[in-house]
């Protein structure tokens, strides 16, 4: 057990958790002194390890992207760093994918402590896993070539045999396309980050994407447009995903989200990446 270095904010949060769970925990903490406390549960494991393991796809600009040199950046990467900072540990990112996300979260032994990076909160996910409170608004929309922007004014305009719709496999984009586009030609491409360029080059007419992702590509590639950005096909929120049985970690993450909302940190991140709050 680590003997020192546990942040006061972590101590306060764990005391709150412990009062609602089992066992009595004695804490001595002041502005001058911090002493070790007997921790239990997932948070204790993370503190003992001194590192939180974060699963992320790294293919979803501007939320989670992994450069060729292994450097991660994005809105959700900064969220992960804030969670780690407020627990008082370092971060190690572990690669996952949309097709394997659920299996990776549920794997035993665990591959990582939690998953983050554009993960929409759904009832289906909550049936088998834990999801945090939302911290970012989300909704399905499209990317298309700027020269064809006037062609798509509704979902019906997309759902035509001559329209080639490209999606990445295993996630909610593919699910949405299969459920709502029964006439369009659906093309599944393995790498999400390549699809915008393929649409711009004419290898597909439309990409099913989200309001968190589309603005980045419109701003960085003048060949692309998001004509339905202000009227998404549905509405949702993005959250953090983890195994059931880790309620102490869930409470820690939710507390961090609430603190970030209260102190303006989350708003600054929204503004930095041009994204909408919830």
Provide tags for this entry.
278 residues; alpha/beta; five-stranded mixed sheet; three-stranded parallel sheet; 15 strands; 19% strand; elongated; disordered N terminus
What report would you give on this structure?
Mean pLDDT is 88; it is low at 1-6 and 14-38. A hairpin with a 5-residue loop joins strand 3 and strand 4 (72-73). This protein is an alpha/beta fold and 278 residues long. The relative contact order is 0.17. The chain has helices spanning 8-19, 41-49, 75-87, 101-106, 123-128, 155-158, 172-180, 195-200, 214-220, 247-263, 265-273, and strands at 51-56, 59-60, 64-66, 72-73, 90-95, 114-115, 129-131, 136-138, 140-145, 164-167, 185-188, 206-210, 224-225, 236-238, 241-243. Helix content is 35%, strand content 19%. Helix 3 (75-87) packs across helix 10 (247-263). The protein has 11 helices and 15 strands.
Q: Given the helix and strand composition, which structural class is it? A: alpha/beta
Overall geometry: elongated
The end-to-end distance, rounded to whole angstroms, is 39 Å
Mean pLDDT: 88
Strand order of the largest sheet: 11-10-12-9-13
Per DSSP, the total helix count is: 11
Which ranges are low-confidence, i.e. pLDDT below 50, for 5 or more consecutive residues? 1-6, 14-38
Outline the biggest β-sheet.
Answer: 5 strands, mixed
What is the topology?
Blueprint (H helix, E strand, L loop, with lengths): L7 H12 L21 H9 L1 E6 L2 E2 L3 E3 L5 E2 L1 H13 L2 E6 L5 H6 L7 E2 L7 H6 E3 L4 E3 L1 E6 L9 H4 L5 E4 L4 H9 L4 E4 L6 H6 L5 E5 L3 H7 L3 E2 L10 E3 L2 E3 L3 H17 L1 H9 L5
Parallel strand pairs: 1-5, 1-6, 10-11, 10-12
Antiparallel strand pairs: 2-3, 3-4, 7-15, 8-14, 9-12, 9-13
């Amino acid at each position: 057990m680590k003997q020192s270095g546990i942040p006061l904010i972590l101590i306060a949060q764990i005391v709150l958790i412990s009062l609602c769970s089992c066992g009595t925990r004695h804490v001595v903490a002041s502005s001058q002194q911090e002493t070790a406390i007997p921790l239990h549960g997932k948070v204790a494991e993370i503190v003992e390890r001194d590192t939180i393991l974060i699963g992320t796809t790294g293919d979803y600009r501007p939320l989670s992207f992994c450069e060729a040199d292994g450097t991660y950046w994005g809105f959700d990467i900064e969220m992960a760093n804030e969670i780690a900072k407020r627990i008082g540990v370092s971060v190690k990112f572990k690669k996952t994918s949309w097709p394997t996300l659920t299996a990776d979260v549920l794997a035993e032994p665990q591959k990582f402590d939690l998953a983050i990076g554009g993960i929409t909160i759904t009832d289906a996910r909550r049936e088998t896993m834990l999801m945090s409170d939302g911290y970012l608004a989300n909704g399905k929309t499209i990317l298309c070539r700027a020269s064809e922007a006037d062609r798509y004014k509704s979902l019906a305009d997309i759902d035509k045999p001559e329209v080639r719709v490209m999606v990445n496999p295993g996630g909610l984009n593919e699910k949405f396309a299969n459920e709502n586009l029964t006439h369009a030609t659906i093309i599944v491409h393995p790498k999400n980050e390549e699809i915008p360029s393929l649409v711009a080059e004419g290898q597909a007419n439309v990409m099913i994407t989200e309001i968190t992702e589309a603005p980045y590509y419109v701003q960085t590639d003048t060949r692309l447009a998001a004509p339905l950005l202000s009227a998404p096909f549905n509405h949702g929120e993005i959250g953090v995903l983890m195994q059931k049985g880790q309620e102490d970690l869930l409470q820690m993450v939710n507390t961090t989200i609430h603190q970030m909302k209260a102190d303006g940190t989350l708003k600054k991140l929204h503004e930095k990446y041009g994204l909408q709050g919830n």
